Amino acid sequence: MNEPTPPAREPVLRCEDLSMTYAEGRMRTPVFDGLALAVAAGETVAIVGASGAGKSTLLHLLGGLDRPSRGEVYVAGQKMSALSDAERGRLRNRALGFVYQFHHLLPEFTALENVMLPVLLNGAPVADASARARGLLEAVGLGHRLAHKPGELSGGERQRAAVARALANRPACVLGDEPTGNLDEKTAAIVFDLMLGLNREQGTSLVLVTHDRRLAARLDRVLELHEGRLRPVS
Predict the structure, then answer these.
(1) How many CA atoms lie within 13 Å of 59's alpha carbon, on the beta-carbon side?
(2) Which of 5, 140, 184, 194 has the most CB atoms around it within 10 Å of its CB?
(3) Which CATH architecture does the domain made up of 41-69+84-232 adopt?
(4) CA–CA separation, 199 vs 221, rounded Å?
């Protein structure tokens, strides 16, 4: 007797007919038109393309940081356009993590406090937020730097702390915009290995914009944004 086929799981992140056009006066500058993308749970996806192709714009739309000219973005099954600004903010904090080329850590807070902050904003008690942040910082090799502020950390250490912060709320997906682009080659490889290791360990999906095609090739899928279209790279 055949076992019943389990229902397909909802992608953790997807977009349909996504289009973006910038307007300035009478000028209209299309960035891309009609993009579709679905990211499965635990999947890693790299987006590559020439400078100015719209990779960062696409990532901002997927993360609900900007609104598209047309189309829909769904995060953890929820349509972003149907949510209020406050609801989108809560969904981003709960379901998504962000890592940028520059770490964007708050300079007045320690590494521990920076990683605790998203957990506290999600409503967790201080003790739970501290334990979660401490565990993540230890996982990225910064257990001895908990009380150090960003100015007291090296570039690689700051970026590792940013990775820990992105994972603080156990998000469904982490979005990375050139997360190793400001690092030397050796440190970039360390941070990239770290992100992949945590992806496998925690089952968090990754969508990374990167100019480094060698690193991109290590992900499950590589897509190129070219002339307003996403196309697979073999």
Answers:
(1) 28
(2) 140
(3) 3-Layer(aba) Sandwich (3.40)
(4) 14
CB 31 within 8 A of CB 144: no
Given phi > 0 = left and psi -120 to 50 = alpha, else beta, which region is 69?
Answer: alpha
Strands 13-24 and 221-226: unpaired
Q: Which residue has the tokens 């600004």?
A: 85
pLDDT of residue 51: 83
Q: Nearest 10 degrees: CA dihedral of 96, 59, 209, 162?
A: -40
- 213: part of which helix (H) or strand (E)? helix 213-216
Domains of the chain: which residue ranges?
Answer: 41-69+84-232
Q: DSSP per residue over 152-200, as a string?
A: GS-HHHHHHHHHHHHTTT--SEEEEESTTTTS-HHHHHHHHHHHHHHHH
Mean pLDDT in runs of 10 for the chain (234 residues)?
51 92 82 91 92 88 90 93 91 89 88 94 92 91 93 91 90 89 80 83 89 88 90 87
Rounded CA separation 67/170 (Å): 25
